[in-house]
Amino acid sequence: MAITILFLGPLRDLATSDSIAVDAPLDWAGLIAAVPDAVASELRGERVNIACAGRVLADKTTLAAVDGDEIALLPPVSGG
């Protein structure tokens, strides 16, 4: 089985894809290595959050995804 990484909003444009599948398990270092460099650069900043298996992580470096999990990369939201 695999883990699905979803690229949302402007991160989708940077990744040039809606999603990718990677082998499980996946931690923070593995996530950074799995995504395109432009996305990895954004992930290292404070403005992008990560949800794993439906839960937004308070500390994204604690990512511990397992088989079947879906990781959503959440860019900052704008609007009024």
TrEMBL record:
<dbReference type="InterPro" id="IPR016155">
    <property type="entry name" value="Mopterin_synth/thiamin_S_b"/>
</dbReference>
<dbReference type="InterPro" id="IPR012675">
    <property type="entry name" value="Beta-grasp_dom_sf"/>
</dbReference>
<dbReference type="InterPro" id="IPR003749">
    <property type="entry name" value="ThiS/MoaD-like"/>
</dbReference>
<dbReference type="Pfam" id="PF02597">
    <property type="entry name" value="ThiS"/>
</dbReference>
<protein>
    <recommendedName>
        <fullName>Molybdopterin synthase sulfur carrier subunit</fullName>
    </recommendedName>
</protein>
